[in-house]
Amino acid sequence: KSRAAGGGGSPAEERVTTYALRTALDVLVIEVLSHYLYFNSIATNHVLTKHATAPVTPLDVATCGWWVLSFTWLKFCVIWRFFRLAALVEGIRPPENMRKCFAMNYDVQGFWKNWHASFNRWLVKYMYVPAGGSRYQLLVVWPIFIFVALWHDIEVRLLGWAVLMILAFMPELLVKREFASPRWDWVRRKHPTALWVAKSLAATVTISSLMVGNMVGFVVGLDGVGAFLKQLLGSPVLAASLVSFFSAASLMLTFEDWLYWAK
To answer: What is the DSSP letter of 117?
Structure first.
C-alpha cells in the first residue's frame, strides 16, 4: 500500500519511469549548461563587478542574471527531483518543489509559490497564518522575506534582495485585491482585450522587478546595482527587455486561458 505524503496517489499514478526520464534529462541539461556557459561562476566570483578586464555593458549583466537564474532553477530541480524520485520508488509521494519553470511566471506571488514549493507551504503554515494571514498581508510579507533572506545566508546583498522583493510584491497585492472586487466585473465582460493588455503591462513591471531583485541578490549585489541601472537607462537593452517581457507575459496569459478552456 502506498505511504502517500502531501497529496495522495500512488507511484503508478505518478508514472515513476517518466519522472525518472525527466530527472535524467535535467541532469543532462545542467551538465551541458555548466560545461559551456560559465555565468554562475562569473557571478559567484564577482567577475563583472571586481575582475572585469573590459567595460561591462548592461547586456552583459542582464544576460548573466538570466543564466544565473536559469542555472539556479535547474540546480534545485536536479537536487529535489532526484530525491523525490527515490521517494516515489519507495512508495512515498512528497510534494514537487519546482512545480513550474521560473520563466513561466509573470507575478511575484506565482513565482514564489512555484519555487521551493514545500518551503513556501512551511512559511504559510508557520509564519504567514500565525502572523495574521490575509488580514495583515502587507505587513506580514516583511518578516517573511527577511527571514527567507537570513535563512539563505547573513549577507547585506540578500537583505537588499528581500527588500526589493517586498517592494515588488506589495503593489501587486494591492492591485490584485482591488481587481478582485465585483465592481470591476464590467471591465472583464465588456473590455477583455484592454484587460489583457493591462495585465501584460503589469506583468512586464513585475518581471522587471524580479529580474532586478535577483540580480542584486545573486549577480551584482547592492554595490553594483546603481551603476547597472544608470547604464541600463541609456541603453537600447532596456527597451528590448521590456518588449520581450511584455511579449512573454502576453504568451503566458494566452496559454493560461487556453488551459482554462481546455479543461
So the answer is: H
Give Cβ neighbours of residue 3 (< 8 Å, ≥ 6 apart).
Answer: 90, 91, 92
Tell me: pLDDT of 104 over 70: yes
Contacts of 152 by beta carbon, 8 Å cutoff, 6+ apart: 158
Active site residue 46: no
Nearest to 163 by CA among 114, 125, 212: 212
Checking if the pLDDT of 124 tops 70, the result is yes
CB 160 within 8 A of CB 216: yes
Q: Which of 35, 116, 152, 191 is catalytic?
A: 152
Please write the tens of the pLDDT for every residue from 11-65.
Answer: 465 589 999 999 999 999 999 998 998 888 888 887 877 777 778 888 888 888 8
Number of Cβ within 10 Å of residue 13's Cβ equals: 11
